[in-house]
Amino acid sequence: MLGLGADRLRADMNRLLALLFHQGVLDEQFLQLQQLQDETSPNFVCEVVNIYFHESEKLLRNLRGLLMERDFSDYKKMGIHLNQFMGSSSSIGAKRVRNVCVAFRAASEQNNRAGCLRALELLENEYCYLKNKLHELFQIEQQRVLAAGARYPMQN
Amino acid sequence: MAPTIESVNQGNGGFEGNNKRSDRFVKATWKNKLTALVVDNGELCRVLERENLRAYGVETVAVETGEAAVELIASGSTFNLIFIDMYLPTMSGPEAVRQIRAMGARSKIIGLTAFITEKDEQDFFAAGIDEFFEKPLDPDWFVPIIREVDNQI
């Protein structure tokens, strides 16, 4: 009976993952992260995603800070922040966030401040959605691990 | 087919991490001990590039800046491969590559960026890189490069 809890949670994780893939929020690069997780680094995916959260929030603050400057004109600096955000998003499979960065970059290259502001808002929303969903995924995973561990302790 | 945790890791479960990472990477065996330097300002990219290369048996060091990379080479460190981001703070990727090549380094240098433009490609190749790819590191393209380097030693 206890085992059913772990199985059900695994099914929940797979459903959530399928949804995120279907929505284009994540791509196969996210699954590749798990290839690097093993018993010597059992929390690798979680740690890497937390690094992504930390970096992304800093980049979003930097981008908003730049655009809020009264005499903002440093589009080159904005491009550098966007480049980093694109690179990190691609690297963890955050497809939709990466795509918004590409559009943001295009507005930045045209020195289009209004376009950049619109893109920033979209980026903040996309990032927020992604973060919430990844937290949900990791919560289910934590519950699954607990449920699986409580099932038959002697089997392992 | 919808992605599932089971489909990720040859049946051992994705998040569980209860298998050695070598299940996939054991196929990569090299004749020589290979070394790589990763140069990237972003911690996430630096960690992932380093861990991907290590998983394929390449001893890898990662630094944050072009200056740190140049200092490392100037101090006598040698690497078979260098993976370097285009956009680095203060000293750019192309400038770092120019200085590394000027010191006589014969490493295979792979330029990386989040979004390739024609101008970036021209600048980076003019600086002395051998290959240029968009992130992320993908075994489909970096494993053949490692194999080529291994065969040339």
Please explain how this structure is put together.
- The mean pLDDT of chain A is 91.
- The two termini of chain A are 18 Å apart.
- By secondary structure, chain A is an all-alpha fold.
- Chain A has helices at residues 2-22, 28-33, 44-68, 75-92, 95-109, 113-151.
- Chain A has a single domain (2-35, 43-139), classed as Four Helix Bundle (Hemerythrin (Met), subunit A) (Up-down Bundle), CATH 1.20.120.
- The longest helix of chain A has 39 residues, at 113-151.
- Chain A is elongated.
- Chain B has a 5-stranded parallel beta sheet with strand order 2-1-3-4-5, with helices on both faces.
- Chain B is of the alpha/beta class.
- The model of chain B is unreliable at 6-20 (pLDDT under 50).
- Chain B has helices spanning 22-25, 43-55, 66-74, 93-102, 118-127, 139-152, and strands spanning 34-39, 58-63, 81-85, 108-113, 131-134.
- Chain B has one domain (35-151): 3-Layer(aba) Sandwich (Rossmann fold), CATH 3.40.50.2300.
- Chain B is globular.
- Helix content of chain B is 39%, strand content 18%.
- The termini of chain B are far apart.
- Chains A and B meet through helix 1, helix 2, helix 3, helix 4 and helix 5 of A and helix 2 of B.
- Chain B: Keywords: Phosphoprotein.
- Chain B: This is Response regulatory domain-containing protein.
- Chain B: The modification 4-aspartylphosphate is found at residue 85.
- Chain B: Residues 35-150 form the Response regulatory domain.
